[in-house]
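Continuing the series of single-chain predictions for the mutant panel. This is the parent chain; the variants come on the following pages.
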Amino acid sequence: MMTAAPDPGDVKGILHPEEQARHRSLNRLGVGPALAEFADRYWVVRWDLRGRPSYSAQVLSFPCVNVTFERSTIRTGGFVTGVCTTKYVRELAGEGETFGIRFAPGGFGAFTGMDVGALRDDSAPLRAVLPEAAGLADRVLAEQSDERRRDIVEEFFAGRGRTDDPHYALVTRIVTAMANDPELTRVDQVTDRFAVPIRTLQRLFRRYVGAGPKWVLCRFRLQDAADLLAHGRPDLAVLAAQLGYFDQAHFSREFTAEIGMSPTEYARSAQAVSAVPTAR
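Parent structure:
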């Protein structure tokens, strides 16, 4: 059974979402049975900026591995990209497209048996990570239909060896709690709740997620902050307290260091874009 397609209104992780939407299209599809336990979604980005300036699309990536099939002026083929611990910037120029699978946190490592820490802040050709995938990118990119592309990827992964992994199940529970429970703001709270020693937790996250638990907590918090600011939540003191920061100054420093502008500047930028009518 296919999982439901993600909410098209969910733009968490996408920086300057309204501005970015004016430069590219975004489609998302549910995951089929071959990857339902290990992946979150299929996603498709297309752009046609021929005759227009290039655009730097910025994302605060989730703690996930992505497998992508790309065609652009920069690169073409299949790729595996690990967790990006800094702001991810992709230059969109000319015409291009990316068809991707976002694995769940820990999902790629559990499915493949790979230590995904080796892919942190890096990208590798798909065939170098999965040699049996030689030719898969050509097959995927030859199709025009996103649904047919998904079918090809699902067929490739179906039946590949995997076993129940209790470590992955634990990582999934922990990351889900980190993402959804605003009370979890410190690593010691995580170790207490799940009765996992700190060193064990760090090893599990390095092996399955590709980044440490402290970074994951921080990333989820910054994603929430950017999402709320982009949708009109400029009361920084209230927002900082809501997200568990020590104070507003702490929040502003962390946000500015990661995003490249202050929370106030980011909110103003979002409001300015919203006020500009979309060209028809």
